[in-house]
Amino acid sequence: MFYLHTEACVHMVLCERNDLLSVPAGMRHWFDMGSEPYFTVIRLFTAPEGWVARFTGDSIATRFPAFVRQAA
User: CA 7 → CA 4, 30, 54, 72, distances in Å?
Assistant: First the structure.
């Protein structure tokens, strides 16, 4: 589950195979890999310093349900 935190709300996006997300520069976001993560991510940036995470220390993620993978 990928979470995007805009000024007004938090959007939850269930990411699946072949999905592509574009996150605007500076938008607060986080992801929940679940208890048994299995995925590959390709991150693209326009500048080398873009890959460095800037942790906010905000506890907002704790106010949303944890991701639980449903049986196939």
Answer: 10, 15, 18, 35
